[in-house]
Amino acid sequence: MAATSKAQCAKCEKNSGILTCDGCLEKFCRRCFNDHRQDLSKELENVVYEHDMLKQQLEMPNANDSHRLLKQVDKWKNGSIDKIHRLAGQCRTDLVKLLNKNKDRLTDRVLKITNRVRKGRDDEDYDERDLSKWMNELKELKDELIEPSNVRVEEDKQQSSWIQKIRVHEDFRDQAKDGYPKLQFSSLSPTKPPEAETQLKTSSVSEAYPTKLSSEENKIIEKLRSHDTTILDVGSKNISDAGAKAIAEALKTNQTLTTLYMQENNISPDGVKQLQKP
Fold first, then answer.
1. I need a labelling partner for 113 at 20 to 30 A (CA). Which of 18, 57, 151, 166 fits?
2. 173, 247: one domain
3. Better-scored residue on pLDDT, 128 or 174
4. Residues of the domain holding 270
5. What is the tally of structural domains in the chain?
6. DSSP H stretches of helix in the chain
């Protein structure tokens, strides 16, 4: 009967391989196996180092103040400060909220990695596959912290050349996983004012909108029908759903308005849908 040859140690290639690593599936002699585990321990320290550095970045106070996207907003703001001060402030607020929300998600994911790495080190229960997975996850989270894939600042190309409006919004490629609702953003696209010879059909507010409106809402409707303004701020005017519907109807014929601010009013989601209709 022919003798069965023994497999050589994958590292020294001298001694017989009597121990197999479950991670790389290589066979080692006892001495080389111990050396192999020491090498894995060093790799684990690299994972721990990347983990600690990322965690330190997440725990730094006010880290978002120097974010690249915020600097982009600031540069745009400084170039057109007189015209866009209000809009830039709102964009910064929205962006900080989204970055903080993104940071909170990353912190939760890092905590899960913390527990897995700690358990693996304490139990001596890890191999190459675990180290590679942990390192890749940390690098992915680090890249996401620096350059979020679901947040961007962009110019609204539909706006007049008078100024390029920028918007802050969040992409929802991970919506199902994270469970966050989708945000809707809409803007008013400017059109050319009516020609001097064009005759516009006019009627009273009560004729066009039979639903009873407040005096403040009637003033807003008349303002929209006058075609003499490009920016209108009606924030904190107690506008109701009926008022929102009347404003939406007036916007269909208004040909001069480019920007409408309606924050802090009494408009329900149904009223918002009226304003969002084309």
1. 151
2. no
3. 128
4. 205-276
5. 2
6. 30-59, 68-79, 81-123, 128-146, 175-178, 205-208, 215-225, 241-253, 269-276
